[in-house]
Design brief:
By secondary structure, this protein is of the alpha+beta class. The protein has a domain of 71 residues: Transcriptional coactivator/pterin dehydratase (Gyrase A, domain 2). The protein is built from 3 helices and 4 strands. Strands 1-2-4-3 form a 4-stranded antiparallel β-sheet. β1 and β2 form a beta hairpin. α2 packs across α3. Pfam families: Pterin_4a (PF01329).
């Protein structure tokens, strides 16, 4: 998935097939298909609330800049980000791009 974080978000991106999604997730360590089968998610653990809030804010700022918004949950010592393309009814390449951007920003 080299360079995925630099790809453009495209309106109307279709949902990926199960095979495409599994292949793509292999290049995004830590990301997995959620139980609903229609979103990808990743969880982080931190030493305090501040770090969890910083990750949540980073994901939110990236989402606003791209116009593609995840579900974000966080609390003391943990954060979870989930991406799905609701208009496509599942995971699109846009979700993978946003996951890669978040990974690139968090190192």
């Amino acid at each position: 998935m080299t360079g995925l974080d630099r790809e453009r978000i495209v309106d109307g991106a279709p949902a990926l097939s199960a095979e495409e999604l599994q292949a793509a997730l292999a290049g995004l360590p830590g990301w997995q298909l959620a139980g609903d089968g229609k979103s990808i998610c990743r969880e982080w653990r931190f030493k305090n609330f501040k770090q969890a809030a910083q990750l949540a804010n980073l994901a939110a700022w990236q989402a606003e800049a791209a116009g593609h918004h995840p579900d974000i949950a966080f609390g003391w010592g943990h954060a979870r980000v989930s991406y799905s393309t609701h208009s496509a009814g599942g995971v699109s390449r846009n979700d993978l791009i946003m996951a890669a951007r978040l990974d690139a920003a968090t190192g």
